[in-house]
Amino acid sequence: MRRFAGPVAVLTGALVLTGCGGSDDAKAQLSVGSAYMPQPVSDMAAGFLDIANKGGAKDELTSVTSDVGPVSVHETVGQAMEEVQSLDVPAHGQLVFKSGGNHLMFDKLKHTLKQGDNVTVKLHFAKSGPLTVEMPVKSATYNPTTGH
């Protein structure tokens, strides 16, 4: 009986680990909310939004394109801002772009944007298809927590 104990333990451990591994069908389920751009005062602007992932797999935001000019993704750590090639969108989590934190940077705007305009952005991901978002231009002092 003892000569089977080792192989049985290994087989049982493998079955337990397989059960914990999750399904190959787990995918990111992405949606976007709270998108806005404060009215720019120059040919540069920032953009903010939330990317929610209700799925069981992470994804990565790899780039952003827009109808108003070039867009880069910036990460803020402490007081330092730097352009990054991608940002993770965690499984069952979200990636938040907010004032003072991660943000989209619009550079060399093709035309002047005013409060009430909409900017179309396309978010590109490593695994999921692109998402197109209409980003309303709000007042330069807009604060999403107060709505002003």
Kindly name the structural category.
Answer: mainly beta
Estimated helix fraction: 10-25%
**Radius of gyration from the alpha-carbon trace, in angstroms:** 21 Å
Average residue pLDDT:
87
Task: Tell me the strand percentage band.
Answer: 35-45%
Poorly predicted spans: 4-22
The largest sheet is: 10 strands, mixed
Strand segment tally: 10
Principal-axes shape call = globular
Helical stretch tally:
1
Series of H and E elements: HEEEEEEEEEE
End-to-end CA span: 75 Å
Give an overview of the whole structure.
This protein has 1 helix and 10 strands. With 148 residues, it is mostly beta strands. Strands 1, 2, 3, 4, 5, 6, 7, 8, 9 and 10 form a 10-stranded mixed β-sheet that branches. 19% of the residues are buried.
Characteristic key phrases:
single chain; 148 residues; mainly beta; ten-stranded mixed sheet; 1 helix; 45% strand; globular
Short description:
This protein has 148 residues and is mainly beta.
Draw up the topology in text.
Layout: H1 2-20, E1 30-38, E2 45-53, E3 59-66, E4 71-77, E5 80-84, E6 87-89, E7 93-97, E8 103-106, E9 118-125, E10 131-138
Parallel strand pairs: 1-10
Antiparallel strand pairs: 1-2, 2-7, 2-8, 3-6, 3-9, 4-5, 4-8, 9-10
